[in-house]
Amino acid sequence: MGQPITVTEKRGARDDVVRFDLNRSLTGMGHERYRAGQEVVGDRPPDELARRLFAHGGVEAVHVYSNVIDVDLAPGASPAGLADIVHGLFVHYDHDEPAPASPEDANA
Hints:
Helix content is 20%, strand content 27%. The protein has helices spanning 45-56, 82-87, 103-106; strands at 7-11, 17-22, 31-35, 59-65, 68-73. Strand 4 (59-65) and strand 5 (68-73) form a beta hairpin. The two termini are 16 Å apart.
């Protein structure tokens, strides 16, 4: 359930920056900045995305502006797997698994 986000990955001018262009806006016209080691508060899509990117590891900072996400990588870190995290932000279950029959089944 949920619709995957179309993601285009681009390398920044610096080797430690990767940019993701999306087919939908996550923040409207607002800027959101997150740093590793700081608590990410809130339940909005950019907040959840930042939590998931930090949990992946190798990420020092995340900046979200509308449909553009800039990720500052830790020294020596690879962006491998980050685009998949962005792509799956709104996907609530895998297409290979059957959808829950009821809300109670989804919470089990």
